[in-house]
Write a structure and sequence with these properties.
This protein is α/β, with parallel strands linked by helices. The protein contains 14 helices and 12 strands. α10 links the parallel β6 and β7. α2 crosses α3, α7 runs parallel beside α8 and α9 runs parallel beside α10. 42% of the residues are buried.
Length: 346
């Protein structure tokens, strides 16, 4: 039997009572099935679901929230400028993983961007209003106010990337991150194994723990490296290009570069080609992330450290859902492995 016309007046739409009558069950039983409650025998569940489909019943979200104490929505907060979010494939991959896993849990993704003070105040008001069941936050900076706001409003949260300052305790802070330091060690060890002697590092912003951890990994392998071989970047193509140009001025003998992400590596590669340096013959180059849209599109294709960004997004959702179900006693953090992906640049 077809459901009601979408143009029918609101009062004509089927009610939960109508579903219960069609299924031959009580209203309470119909409500438990519709709102995902437990304790209903499978034959009755099937009857109610059949009645919902036949009548075209759409649950009332406000009523469902009262029953389940859930909004069915999760905020994804990214503390980066909008221009970077929509130009860096890292963010699209991360959001893809989060979206897939939220869909599997029948939850809605609410994307919130924090670029300035006004955005922070708006997001804080939204969190304080109780509109979402939990928060997934990533790309935080060491002076970020967002974690304090999340704690103040007691919103369940999982972070993407280790939050806080280097060396700060993380026992009570749930997060998902990759082995940034170990991946950096593998990149530099690979370059050293090629016989390179002047190995530079284009670092990410030092107000992010991923960049700090990758600097530490570089230093683990080259503790006595010339400080001139370590230069700051900003995780963008142009930032990598600027850093590479400065490196060539500082140390014209540089014969290898480890860039803290693939976008900076692609910018460095562009400058090396402009300056007549062959890759990998004159300068070997390794990135980080393994964003295939970047790493496989460069000429030559980029050797890089792979982190499973999509999988990390899915893990963040799973940890959050566990915390929502068990009241916050689930796993606090997960560190995922990295691996070297060899292509032609090193």
């Amino acid at each position: 039997m077809p459901g009601p016309s979408p143009d029918a007046p609101l009062h004509a739409r089927p009610t939960l009572e109508a579903v219960a009558a069609r299924a031959g069950v009580s209203r309470a039983t119909a409500s438990r099935v519709v709102n995902g409650g437990a304790g209903v025998r499978q034959p009755l569940v099937d009857q109610v679901r059949k009645a919902v489909e036949e009548l075209g019943y759409v649950p009332n979200h406000a009523a469902r929230t009262l029953v389940t104490r859930r909004n069915g929505a999760v905020a994804v907060i990214i503390d980066e400028p909008e221009a970077r979010i929509f130009s860096d494939p890292f963010f699209s991959q991360h959001i893809r993983g989060i979206s897939r896993e939220l869909n599997a849990h029948d939850a809605q993704l609410v994307l919130l961007l924090v670029e300035g003070r006004g955005d922070f105040e708006r997001v804080s008001r939204y969190l304080g209003g109780g509109h979402v069941d939990g928060v997934l936050a990533f790309s935080l900076h060491t002076d970020d106010e967002l974690p304090a706001a999340i704690r103040r409003f007691r919103v369940p949260v999982v972070y993407g990337g280790r939050p806080g300052r280097r060396g700060a305790p993380t026992e009570a802070v749930p997060f998902v991150d990759c082995d940034n330091r170990g991946g950096a060690r593998e990149a530099v060890r690979h370059l050293a194994g090629l016989g390179r002697r002047s190995i530079a590092h284009i670092a990410g912003p030092r107000d992010q723990t991923s960049a700090l951890d990758r600097i530490d990994g570089y230093a683990d392998i080259l503790p006595d490296a010339d400080p001139a071989l370590l230069i700051d970047g900003d995780f963008t193509v142009e930032g990598g290009a600027r850093a590479m140009a400065e490196l060539l001025e500082r140390r014209p003998d540089v014969d290898a570069v480890f860039a803290a992400n693939d976008l900076m590596a692609s910018g460095a590669l562009r400058v090396l080609r402009e300056r007549g340096r062959r890759v990998p013959q004159d300068v070997a180059l390794v990135g980080f992330d393994d964003m295939e849209s970047v790493a496989e599109a460069t000429d030559p294709p980029l050797t890089t450290i792979r982190q499973d960004v999509v999988g990390m997004g899915r893990l963040m959702v799973r940890l959050l859902m566990e915390r929502l179900e068990d009241g916050g006693t689930g796993p606090e953090s997960v560190i995922t492995p990295t691996r070297l992906v060899r292509r032609a640049s090193a």
